Amino acid sequence: MTPPQRRRRYPKPDPEPYSGPDHELSRPDPDPTHPTDEQQRPEGEKQNPERLYVITGPDGVVRTDLDLVTLIVASADPSPSATPEQAALLRLCTAPLSVAELSAYLNLPFSVVTVLVSELLTSELVTARAPVIRQALADRSLLEAVMHGLQKL
Amino acid sequence: MDFKSSDTITGPRTEDHLPHTAQAAVKIVIVGGFGVGKTTMVGSVSEIKPLTTEETMTQAGVGVDDNYGSETKTATTVAMDFGRISITEQLVLYLFGTPGQERFWFLWNGLFEGALGAVVLIDTRRLEVSFDVMGRLEERGVPFVVAVNTFPDGPRYPVEELRTALDLSEDIPIVECDARRRASSRDTLMTLMRFLHSLAMSGALK
Predict the structure, then answer these.
(1) Do B205 and A136 touch (CB under 8 A)?
(2) pLDDT tens digits for B118-136?
(3) Residue A27 to residue B59, Cβ atoms within 8 A
(4) What's the mean pLDDT in B13-29?
(5) Phi, psi (5° rounding) for residue B125?
(6) Which residues of chain A lie closer than 8 angstroms to B171, CB-CB?
(7) What's the rounded Cα separation, in Å, for the pair B125 and B34?
(8) Which CATH homologous superfamily contains domain B20-202?
(9) Which of A6, A69, A92, B159 is an S-S bond match for B25, by CB 3.0 to 4.6 Å?
(10) N- to C-terminal Cα distance for chain A?
(11) pTM for the predicted model, two decimal places
């Protein structure tokens, strides 16, 4: 029996830069009286999707770039004025916890949790420990540390 | 939005707490078609019971004839299972099992860009479901290894025949694994790490 055949692909010459998580939860109908950039461009030209909808907190707090594995640690107890969501989040991360774990335990979508965390970061109730991401030149000692850790499993 | 009252939220068990010394996390992505064993692999090596994070995508639908003028909305929820392995007192590894359907990937923007690398889990009974995933990883320059999750009733191909069928270069490791077994899943992750290390040594990791 012959297996089906795939064809290899190659890195795109101009990869889309990573500019933080996108959170297009919904796409409101574009205003027909204001044509978007997309509509003004020649048809077929590939463009990055426009960010049409950004969730911000009640004060218009812009979300910080949070990764699924950014570790969040509470730096204060919830104040009496904290919302139930904020209070629950603060109680969860008395020890470091990733945004993904917060999302799982709070049973809230990832994008919603990033809003809550951004608000708490702004009010300095939590601190964030950024993830180590893949670099152009990988950190060999990091890779070796992960290998040693896996070997212990 | 539904929000559980704080009384009902179950946080991590005491033994699932990370030490306060945890400074940073890295991630590895396990991709593959539906039912290929991604969650099984995550669960077999994770120190915590696999958790699920989800994202919701709301789409405005067009009203149909019988309810003209009203708008219907459909929400699609895309879930992703993940697990965790403490590497050192400072470093944590997260494993994400991600569905292969590329149309949902925008929800997890940054997942692949920041990942150390990926394991593409394949099922020889449905080899073609993994083709697109591999292409996307190649386009994004995410290094990956291929792991064949061995199912008893799946066809067995010699590695070189698989390499030809998958159009993979000589340096990309192809291994067999049993995602249910911790040792086998760990060896697959080790294969990925050794591959990443060799790329780093040769300076080829872009």
Answers:
(1) yes
(2) 999 999 999 988 888 898 8
(3) yes
(4) 93
(5) -75, -25
(6) none
(7) 12
(8) P-loop containing nucleotide triphosphate hydrolases (3.40.50.300)
(9) A69
(10) 38
(11) 0.80
